[in-house]
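Example 3.2
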Amino acid sequence: MRNLSLLTDMYELTMVGGYIVSGKQDQWANFDYFFRKVPDNGGYCITAGLEQVVDYITRMRFSQGDLSYLEGLKIFPDQVFRYLENFHFSGDLYAVPEGTVVFPGEPIIRVTAPLPEAQFIESALLNVMNFQTLIATKAARVCIAAEGDPVIEFGLRRAHGPDAALGASRAAFIGGAQGTSNVLAGKLFGIPVRGTVAHSWVESFASELESFRKYCEIYPGGCLLLVDTYDTLKSGVPNAIRVGKEMRERGLGDLAGIRLDSGDLAYLSKEARKMLDQEGFEQTRIFASSDLDEWIIESIKNQGGRIDTWGVGTRLVTAYSTPALGGVYKLTGIEEQGRMVPKIKRSDNPEKVTNPGKKKIIRFFDASGLMRGDVMFLEEEAVEARPIRGFHPAVPHISKIYPLKFERLELLQPIIQNGALVYQKPLLKEIQENTRQNLRRLGPEFKRFTNPHIYHVSLSQQLLQTKQRLLKKTNVLEPPAPPSRPAKKIS
């Protein structure tokens, strides 16, 4: 793995240097990673990227080349380099497992470590988590629209560079995609790889029919033909049927499928289905691609389209409609006299006011197993066996009671403790299954694409009181000093 220790914003290093010069290198702090708004005005996100974050943190070291480069900037005092020579992460990291449904405002990752260490990892953590969570969420939406039909990630050629393509393939699989066209992603992550032919294959032969015959001769076990190079219904589908009959006559198996890559996919798929069925090819699948996303797939479904498998590329791997997740990493506590003191960020924008302290999250499920709400508690709070009242983070007179009979699940799990990995990394297939189980336990009202129901994320009474106390404290301004006046001359 490449040394990515310098994958950071410059201000992380200037702050780290400032902490060291200020004698704060042994002062511990708590940071939360969370997001404020769901992409596409959706109802939820699917967390992804934790494995790459953990790899980055546990391998993080400054090489001699890194230190020489930083010295060449002529910014930092010598004591900063003495610190960085032995720099490594020695703190704790708790996280919500990948493939978990998460909501705005609640910490997905909680980092407690010496201040320079906790600060330095911010940029890389945000880079990985924001992107993979964004793509996993988009993939989950696409798979929901597909209603159980297989979805294949087809976005390599439109992704924003090689690293983005690999991260997108991984995240799309977590979100529910069943395969990828990206062969390197298949090798690295064990994702099933899929592919057929491009129009260039068809055009390279003297006729469409000849191109179909040759492809099925070479790959009889997976003969899926691209039928829209010239004319889908007048040429492509009839030629595919003809080749399918020839395969049967020669004992080469059956025609696996046809692919539609342009035109009115709803209409063409219905007409193609009729043509295939009339000629005895009821099992031949119809595969569709062409700038698909969840809204287009939903529309095609509503029009009675007969597509069996969906190839989704550009609009998935770039999260085309909302190309960034606004995840943030905020300090919520600082060590003072041996204890962690809650800290808060104020803002004129209520959604940017942070929830202070080192926190844990309890998720509540009703008798049918559906998620009913999450409540954030201060980490030291005992969650007693009694009904729990959760309070709205910004409008405290709004509250909700979770009965004792509700199932409870603590979301943040220990990943790194005292700098050592204590978490058994799951297989990617296991993470995908976690996504599937989480979405199964999320009510349909939260999964609709238009005006989804808002999921309740609340504060415990103690956390709410801590937040109100800190807001009140930070609202008190020191009176300005009186203006200086020249001394009165006494005659």
